[in-house]
Amino acid sequence: MLLATYDLSAFVSENWRELLDGLLNTLKVSAIAIAGALVIGLVLGAARAHRIPVVSQLTAVYVEIVRNTPILVQIFMIFFALPQFGITFNQFTVAWLSVMIWGGAFNSENFRAGFGAVSYRYREAAYALGFTPLRTFLNVTLPIGGRIALPSSINTYISVVKNTSLMYVIGYEELTTTAINISNLTLETLEALTVLGVVYLTIVWSLSAAIRLLETRLALPEAR
Amino acid sequence: MKRIILATVGVAVVAVAGATMGAAQPAATTAPARLEATAPLPKLPAEIASRKRFIVGVKCDTPPFGYIDVRGKHAGVDVEIARWFARYAFGREQRLTFVCAPTAVREPLLTNGRVDLVISTFTYTADRDTRIDFSRAYYKATGRLLVKNNSPIQSLGDIRGKRVATTSGSVYDRWMKRCFTNTDVLVVDSVTNAVLAFNQGRADAVMFDDTSLALIAATDPSAKLTNDLFLEGPYGIGIRQGNVQLKRWVDSRLELMRKKDIFQKIIVNNIAPRFVPAFSKNILRPNNTFGYRAATLPSVDTVCP
Amino acid sequence: MPDWAGPVARYILEEGLPGTLRVSAIAVVGSALIGIVFGTLLTIRFWPLRALLRGYVEIFRGLPILVTVFIVYFGLPAITPQLRFGPLDAAAIALVVWGSAQVAEATRGAVQSIPHEQHEAASALGFGWVGRHRAVILPQALRRLLPPFVSLLVNIVQNSTLAQAIGGIELLQAAKSQSERLTFYPPAGIGEIHAFEIFAGVMVLFFLISFPLTRLAALLERRLI
């Protein structure tokens, strides 16, 4: 039916400005969320790996809540429920904040596993050499554990980028929202979906390829 | 046997349609459809008649026109109009399936054939008319601006540089993006959320139909409507483009309801008594008829002040 | 319990829960069946089929699930009107597509982790390819699939909320519309915002479903390694 009128180049040439804006918004939100998730993951992952009291328990609660509830509910909580307590964010802030909180939880598990996998031998050696616990962490555990955690961490970041599409439900004009809104007006549904598919797959596949590259490059000599 | 009956009905319908086709008027008419006292009322299209249900898109979050009440049932002026249609068509008001039709998806629901009708505070514009068909006008609405009492926005011109909330895909959304390019338009999915954003400080004003905003201004002492009246656009019932038979049926029943003053009954059922007079001026009544702007004029949302 | 909570809870459970259960049930069963078949087929030597299935897996694991939902809900009807699905069914189908891609990948891994000796022994005993897989390989592989499968179940239940984006009435949409209704002025609503309580309730509901299953998956993982 509409297959007969499929014209991708016309769709792109008419709407490229809005689509580009949408893509930039997606990338903006993703970048901030990934940076935040990285920091959260490192700090909380380290806290849990070293079993720092109170912080560990609170992190565990945070992780379990985020992992066991739908991300859409979390987004709605931040967007609709926080204002009840006077905290009102605009759509852009809700976008990066919600994905950052979600990604941070998963990332802290990634880094906890990564730091935990650092063989105790290395830490023993560091202590023997007179390193303080903090120095040990920064110079020994972090570099090694971080590299171990890198692949799963990048997987989380890929999911963060994919989850920015969910901002459709709060009306934030990222790529998916923009494309679907255009397609609702102009009925060029298939063209819009093609654009979405190509863009997201390009991003996701490139990052996945990067993981595979890094996995071979960063493999620890004795990692078995 | 069933097929023979269906075929006979189909032939009769085609005959009636052909007979009335001669006296038909174009879609964007400015006068009500003329019904001779002796002509039979138009029949339902066969598809709906055989299904014995209407599938109607209504608002689920815009009181008093379409919302979900405390018992979880659909309620509102538009919803009741749909119930009257079901009574006229099938004798029972339960022969209805409601689909939530927020502003942005009203057209896709029709063009994709997911609903038969959209009765969802659907403002007629010539632009929308190119993609779908509208019934005759059934409610007169005008655009208003809701602001806080001491807001720096005191008239339409003041919205430049401010944040105004409205629903996604509405005439206001397109009008502001076209004519007020330095206004920050905050699009949300429903007028409820627009007002929520306004109350929470995410927006400085709300632009929407006078009906919903008037109720809010009346019950919220800290907010008021500016004096501007703009984008006067009656509501119509959305119908899939080309479904002439259904449009004929809908128009005839709307005329029937106008003559019998049923719209007044609906208003009284759905709106608090002190607002009834204001709403009564905007509905079809035996002595109150209105239509759309002439089809030759450009679409309201493309004309900048 | 406050006055408003009763009707709200009733609406959410009566109108929302069936939607969630329906989408989840269809999605879980569909992904399992299709995923296991596809995953096993990914290990055969006929490379065109393998390439096709590999493409399917990579595409639907790579796309955001919401985009897949839109493909099913908006895209399919644009190809032919026969493929027009309601919002809940469209979401279920999209989840089947995504879930089957996940299960296929996991099944491939599980099947390929079965030592080659099993294949050889089965062939020596006279089993053909199908028989071998049905009687020997798959039973072992399926045991290894149990932990990721339980995780998938959790993911699907949580992702059923995506039906909300296309207007499907499930738990989250029911909660949202009730929370909005409460903000209306009387008599439709009560003019108050209780979004936090309502969404927190939904969160607790999902948590109570997901948490035991996540623990179960972790337990199975430890037991079966």
Word description of this protein:
The complex is a heterotrimer of chains A (224), B (305) and C (225). The mean pLDDT of chain A is 89. With 224 residues, chain A is mainly alpha-helical. Chain A has a single domain, classed as MetI-like (MetI-like fold), CATH 1.10.3720.10. Chain A contains 8 helices and no strands. Chain A has helices spanning 8-49, 55-68, 71-81, 91-116, 120-128, 133-163, 175-186, 189-217. Chain B has 305 residues and is α/β, with parallel strands linked by helices. Chain B has 2 domains: 42-140 and 234-286, D-Maltodextrin-Binding Protein, domain 2, CATH 3.40.190.10; 143-225, 3-Layer(aba) Sandwich (D-Maltodextrin-Binding Protein, domain 2), CATH 3.40.190. In chain B, strand 9, helix 6 (171-179) and strand 10 form a beta-alpha-beta unit. The longest helix of chain B has 21 residues, at 2-22. Chain B is globular, with a radius of gyration of 20 Å. The N and C termini of chain B lie far apart (62 Å). The model of chain B is unreliable at 15-33 (pLDDT under 50). Chain C has 225 residues and is mostly helical. Chain C has one domain: MetI-like (MetI-like fold, Orthogonal Bundle), CATH 1.10.3720. Chain C contains 8 helices and no strands. The longest helix of chain C has 37 residues, at 5-41. Chain C is elongated, with a radius of gyration of 22 Å. Classes of the chains: A mainly alpha (224), B alpha/beta (305), C mainly alpha (225). Chains in contact: A-B, A-C, B-C.
Furnish the topology, listing elements before pairings.
The complex is a heterotrimer of chains A (224), B (305) and C (225).
Chain A: H1 8-49, H2 55-68, H3 71-81, H4 91-116, H5 120-128, H6 133-163, H7 175-186, H8 189-217
Helix pairs in contact in A: 1-2, 1-4, 1-6, 1-7, 2-4, 3-4, 4-6, 5-6, 6-8, 7-8
Chain B: H1 2-22, H2 46-51, E1 54-58, E2 61-62, E3 66-68, E4 74-75, H3 77-90, E5 96-100, H4 106-111, E6 117-119, H5 126-129, E7 133-134, E8 143-148, E9 163-167, H6 171-179, E10 184-188, H7 191-199, E11 205-209, H8 210-219, E12 223-225, E13 238-239, H9 244-259, H10 262-270, H11 276-280
Parallel strand pairs in B: 1-5, 1-6, 9-10, 9-11
Antiparallel strand pairs in B: 2-3, 3-4, 6-13, 7-13, 8-11, 8-12
Chain C: H1 5-41, H2 47-62, H3 65-79, H4 87-112, H5 116-124, H6 129-159, H7 171-183, H8 195-224
